[in-house]
Structure formats: structure tokens, C-alpha cells
Amino acid sequence: MLNFDRLTLDESGPIYLQILRYVKQGIAAGTIENGEELPSRRVVSALLGVNPNTVQKAYRLLEEEGLIQSHTGAKSCVVADEAARSRVRTQLLGQDARAMISAMKQMGVTREEALALLDTLWKEDDQA
Amino acid sequence: MLNFDRLTLDESGPIYLQILRYVKQGIAAGTIENGEELPSRRVVSALLGVNPNTVQKAYRLLEEEGLIQSHTGAKSCVVADEAARSRVRTQLLGQDARAMISAMKQMGVTREEALALLDTLWKEDDQA
DNA sequence: CAAACCGTATCACTCATATAATACACTTAG
DNA sequence: CTAAGTGTATTATATGAGTGATACGGTTTG
Q1: What's this model's pTM, rounded to 2 decimal places?
Q2: Please, are residues A25 and A60 in contact by the beta-carbon 8 Å criterion?
């Protein structure tokens, strides 16, 4: 069953989007098996200390993207085949990277500086 | 006088934060001179098609960070010395980069893959 | 079967964001 | 000097995000 222990909420944006992103990252990373069950809305809401409606909103969006399936009364489960997995991975990777590239270019950062900065911060993060 | 022509609003977050970031990026890039005047709240609001109060909120936050100065009746102006410029630059660069690194690591991306991806997307962006 | 759990839905409330319409005092330009 | 422009402030309204409480029907499990 999918695990939410590694999800820590912050103030970067709506909670339901953070939950949505967490599940997507799990799918993209391959740590979530196809057909794997998700913990119920109530369980997740209690674990994260948020309202069940907020979790429901994230789950509903996941279902609208075709990444999970829900049946009234039974637990929801993931339905992410290899194509969906690849699609989500590309979507998430490009999303952040393009935002960062846009910001860097606007600040006059060169490609070489950007690569060096990413390399430095990546290694710093490894040690932390 | 500071120019807002290159600021295009999107749905990524609050408008006042997008204005705040635009000015900060200008300061970090060095395209904004020390002592340079800012267009009035009313002018910017008309240009962007938003409410004057929204622009005022961004300007107020900039003043609280010590990046601009305002005097009743006269235009506000930038007061960003080299130290402030460096501080803002580091703040903005680290902000986006660390978010991307965190997301990538959670998806099982290696440092080499990350550097290659950034290099590829950067060049793609150059052509677009 | 029956209790517990689950997905789903609704209503009311708070808070932040953004808009709209003014108003007042000060500075600057004609 | 006068008028236009500016910073600042207030009040009201609308919307989305999030919470809280509750309810109903279907599924799972003991």
C-alpha cells in the first residue's frame, strides 16, 4: 500500500497540489506499483493533519488524469502503466526545470554558470 | 525609469508575488540602477490590468525588504547597493534550484542526468 | 449478518487574494 | 499658484482554498 510518510507539507502552495505532486513523483520514480492500493482519504487526512475534503480533492484530480481508480466503498488504487509513468515523469521534470531556466536567463545567468550552480547545490544537498 | 513591459502574469501564484519577483529579478540581473525611479502604483496597475491595491502590496513588501524607498507624493525609487543585489540574486537562484533538486532526487534522477537535462532544456529554450 | 471502513456529497465557516470605489495629504510640473 | 500625479488608507464585495461536521450508500471483514 502506498506510503505517505515522506510527504511533509509546506507553505509553497495549496495542500491538495502538494498531495497530487507527491503521488505523481512516486509514480514517476517507479516506487509505486501498478494496481497498488492508496490509503483511504480519512487515513491520509489524519496522518497529515488536514481535512478529508482536501485529500479528496487531490484524489479526484488524480482520477481525472487517469492515474488512479476509485470504486464506492472500496479503496482506490493506482493504474499507471509504463506510458503514463513516462508521461508524468517528463511533465514533472520539465515543469520545474523550465521555470528555473526562465528565471536564470532573466537574471543574466549563463548556461555554464547554471550547470555549475546545479552541480554545487546538488552536492551540498547530498551532504545535508 | 523601471520598465514593466517584460512582465507577463500567469496562474502560477498570487499577482503581488509575481510583481515582487519581477523587480527582484531586475535588481539581481543588474538591469535596474541604484536610485532608479519606479512607475507609480496607478500606472503599473493600468499596464498590467490589475488593481492598484495589488501593486501597492508588492511595493510595500519591497520596501519592507529595504529594496525600495517611498515618500508620500513623490515616486518610489530603488535603493539596492551591491550587497543587496548579491543577496537577492543568491536568494532567487537558490530558491528555484533547490526546489528542482528536491523534486528530481525524489524521482530517482541522478546528478549526471540532471545536468544533461538542464543542458538540453537550456539549449531548447535558446532556440524558442 | 453486522460492524467497521470506504468513497462521495453537502452545508457553513474562516482566511487570503483580488477587485472596486473613494478619500486625503503631499510633491511636482505647467 | 494650480492642477495633475503620487503614496497611503479605508470600506465593501467576490472568489478560491481549507476546515469542520455530518450524512448516505456500497464494500470488506470478523
Answers
A1: 0.92
A2: no
